[in-house]
Amino acid sequence: MFTGIVEEIGTLKRIKQGSESLELVVGAEKVLEDVHLGDSISVNGVCLTVTDFSSKEASFDVMPETYRATNLHELRIGSGVNLERAMQAGGRFGGHMMSGHVDGVGVITSRKAASNAIYYEIALDKEVMDYLVYKGSIGVDGTSLTVFGVGDQTVTISLIPHTVEYSVIGTKQAGDKVNIEIDILGKYVVNFLTKQSGQGGTTQSAITTSFLEENGFK
């Protein structure tokens, strides 16, 4: 699990391209201080396994499912990537709970400065939009951010100067793609309240607004 607090911006050093797979070698320092083979590191919000490492680089394999479901295949030599080690049980929880399992890829439609903040509007598939709420949490390229606006097909986020400087999102422009992870707690709640039927439809939960009011939740 991760918190969405980026520890370091790494640099992509080498890529071995397969038909629908990748081998990435990322240059870094901080996240490699206590690294071991098999460790999990979030790379632009994607949970990847360390397959080899030195004091300055780490290697990762990207399988076809991850290749298709994320923006990692768009990386180029020299690209910056957000890096975060898996959280420790006794550490501070600064962001929100993130699994490193990407739910969709969004497209930035606008980037606007307002005072000391940068506002981004991101277009998303409806399947992802259904889980977003105003002032809720969202993971964007592995960074924990707050939702400041929810449209029919877009979500709005805002970056403070610190996030602009210490996250690759600060370099993104309109047209760029970003990995999106929705709040895992929201997914569990929706799954609990709305059960998926075998035919692909939905069966409404017995927990309704009337049920909650009748049992003291007002």
TrEMBL record:
Pathway: Cofactor biosynthesis; riboflavin biosynthesis; riboflavin from 2-hydroxy-3-oxobutyl phosphate and 5-amino-6-(D-ribitylamino)uracil: step 2/2. The keyword Repeat applies. Lumazine-binding repeats lie at residues 1-96, 97-193. The keyword Repeat applies. It catalyses: 2 6,7-dimethyl-8-(1-D-ribityl)lumazine + H(+) = 5-amino-6-(D-ribitylamino)uracil + riboflavin. Coiled coil: none annotated. GO terms for molecular function: riboflavin synthase activity. Its EC number is 2.5.1.9. Transmembrane segments: none annotated. Residues 1-96, 97-193 form the Lumazine-binding domain. Keywords: Repeat, Riboflavin biosynthesis, Transferase. It holds the Pfam family Lum_binding. It comes from the Bacteria. PANTHER family: RIBOFLAVIN SYNTHASE, RIBOFLAVIN SYNTHASE ALPHA CHAIN. Catalyzes the dismutation of two molecules of 6,7-dimethyl-8-ribityllumazine, resulting in the formation of riboflavin and 5-amino-6-(D-ribitylamino)uracil. NCBIfam families: PRK09289.1, PRK13020.1, ribE. This is Riboflavin synthase. It comes from Pontibacillus salicampi.
